Each structure stands twice: as C-alpha cells, then as structure tokens.
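User: Before I run my own analysis I want an independent prediction to cross-check against. Here's the chain; please return only the structure tokens and, at the end, one sentence I can use as a sanity check.
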Amino acid sequence: MDMLMIQLEKDSKIPLYEQLYEEIKKGIIEGTIAVHTKLPSKRKLSEFLSISQTTVELAYAQLIAEGYITSKSRVGFFVEAIEELAYVEKTLPHHAIKKTLTPQILIDFNPGKIDTSSFPFTTWRKYAKEAIDYHEKDLLLTGTPQGELGLREQIANYLYQSRGVLCSPEQIVIGSGTEQLLPMIMKLLGEENQYAIENPGYTQTHHIFSQYNQQVIPINVDEDGMQIQELEHSSANIAYVTPSHQFPTGAVLSASRRAQLLNWAAQDEQRFIIEDDYDSEFRYIGKPIASLQGMDHRDKVIYISTFSKSLMPSLRIAYFVLPEKLLSRYYNMFTYYTSTVPRFEQHILAQFMRDGYFSKHLNRMRKIYRKKLEKLTHALMPYAPTVTISGEQAGMHVVLTVKHEMNASTLSNIALQHGIRITPIKEYMLAPTIQNREDQFLLGFGGLEENDILNNIQKLMDCWNIQNTFR
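Assistant: Structure tokens:
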C-alpha cells in the first residue's frame, strides 16, 4: 500500500495517535485494508499526514498489541487475518432501552425486609477479622460439598434445641439459598414426581418447580393450614409445606393435620414431605411449634431452612436435613459438587453460633419484632372493623383484610402511586380458591422503623380514604 487516506482532526480532544489507530483498525475490520497488506513506513506516513513519527509509532504499537498488524524486522508492518483473532470489536447499532417509570418507594411493607439497624455488626466484624488470618489459611482451599463440618455441627445442635429436629451433621447439606437447594432435592427424589404446594403459597418455589418441569398441584389453605383431605384426593406424592407459619396466610398447621400429613406420607414409599421452616425463630404467642421432622418416625420429612430472616438475606446460607434413607443416594449423586457458600462465611457463622451469639441475637430480635407487631396492631385498631389482621402469631408479616368497594389489586396500585408498596395475597395464589382473598394483603413489618409504624399506617389508610374512627 502506497499510502493511507486518513482524515485526522488535529483540534479534537482525542489524541492523534488514537485517531490514527481507530481509523486503521476500522479499515482492517471492514476489509478496506486487505489482509497481508504492507502498511506505509512510520516515516512516510508521518510525512504524508503531517504528524510526528512518534504518533505513528504509538498507533502501530497498539495495533500490534491487539493483533491487527504484525511487524517483520527490516521489512515492515503487515495486516493480520482478523478471522484468526479471538475477538474483533465491531460497532453494533445502539438501541435505546426504554425504562419503565415506577413511583419512588417511600414506605415498603415487603415481608422479606429485616431490621438492619439491629444487626450485631461489631461481633460479626470480630469473627470476620479472625477468619481472614494466617492461622485460618486452610479456608482458602476448597471445602466439602456438604459444607463446613463445624457449621453443620452447630446447625444440628441448634435445630435440636430450638425446633426438636433430630439429625446428625452428616444429614445436613449447606447451600446458597432455597433456589439452589430445591433443585438438588428434586434430583434426589427423581424425575417422575408430582408436587403438592400450598395455595396461596411462596411464588418462588412454584417458579423453581416449573423451571425444572415438575408437575405442580395447588392444595388450598385455610385457617388450619394445608387441607390434607384435598391432598389425599390428589395424585401428588411430594408435599411442600410451611407448617409452622404458612406463607403467606400465617396459618399454623393444626396438630390433627400434622398427623394426617405424616400418615399420608407413610402410606407410600415414594411419598415425601418437604418442610420449609423459613421463619420459625420468631413466634410471639404460646410455645414454639414443633417441627414435622421431629415428629417423623418413617424418614419421610426433608427439612429445609435459611438464615435470611434470622440474620440477613445477603448471607446466602441455607440448608436442608435429609432423611437417613436418602443419604446414600445423595453421596452417589453430589459428591462431585462444590459447596456454593464461601468457606469464610461458613466459618464466621459457625463461630458466631458456637459462642452463643446467634441465640442472643434471636432473643433480641424476637423482642424487637414483637414490639413492632404491637405498634402495628395498635396503629390499625382505629380503622376497625374496616381493617382487620390475622396470622400475627409468628413471623415478620401479617395478613391485612380491608373491606373496601375496591379490590386489593386496585388498592395496591393506588398505594404505589403514593410511594407505598403493599402486595395483595392474590399475587401468591396459584389457582382460584373457595375462600375469598380479593380483599387481603401481605403486610410485612420487619424492615419498618418502630417509630415510623404509626405514621406509615396513617399514610396507607389516608391514600385509601379509610377513616380513623377514633378521631
């Protein structure tokens, strides 16, 4: 090639060498500068474009570094075949992404929120500092697929003391969340299963089953939890339940239904129960409800829980407890897996539990959430009987029933326009039910500041034009 016809803008903020580099690269990519073409020498090109040789040298050096051209000693610079490059940058058409405008959320009644201001940062920081130390250098290596033995030992001890769960550390598998552990359980149980899930129920669980092409059968829920008689008349062989605090209704599976459910599972070798104990730590009325797993004598219950509500959602540590009869199957299928939870986080949590800080934290948070619940109940009293609550025995949310000329979906949209997020129960339903839930909401209070609860409820009621009968 005798010369390169390139226009350089000497008044531009872009350096001349960069302009030259971009123009040559563009020509190579688009094919206007053919493969194996010999480029002009640095001296000739600098004279032709009226720029310094240093500018040309910088541009050529960058092209060589990126593989667009090659330099042959005492011969010159030649264009490379770009199809041999691992990646060639091409200008793609720019499509503006339309952003959906949503109102700013000023008050959030999301049930997944926790009280972040009460987290024991100082204590957690102490254990984190100790973990990142030369004496714990083994934590840099890959751990066991089931999770750290020390953490599994602490979980087994905690479950026995607080939930009546009978298990050994060998039965516990740690993972980064329910969405990671549920697929493992599905593989353990086999492909041809039909899952009974609560209606209304946890939508994420339904999505996970659907993504793995599992057949799902909605079973209605009433004030005593899942209707076991309906389950018995279904073709389901796996029941997914939240018996201690049903999500989202807050119902507790009654003692008689617990016995029915365990008897149902015992009638067939292929039947199992997945017990999701997602927030059992926080119960405010009566004694803690015993786990189904602790009542099970036939190895039929797979217990699953998480530290999302008790500590923090971002910790991403969950676990399940397998019946002993499924252990050999687990070892055959998952020994090649690597734990999805970093060993440092597991180690920190194990030490935190070992030294009693986890129990102390739960006791403290139980008192804090009880006070918030009391404030919430008090704040809603002036709006009765238009507004009532249920499911307040445990957890960090209640069911809010609103007698209004508009349904819950419409009221939810009105609230959103006022910067308030509150979710209708209907959004957690998988199929229509006999029980009317068109006027019910899920109202989470865990993430609300205690001193803001009264004002938050007033704003919610005002935007719905519900009168305070105490005024």
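Sanity check: The chain is about 35% helix and 15% strand.
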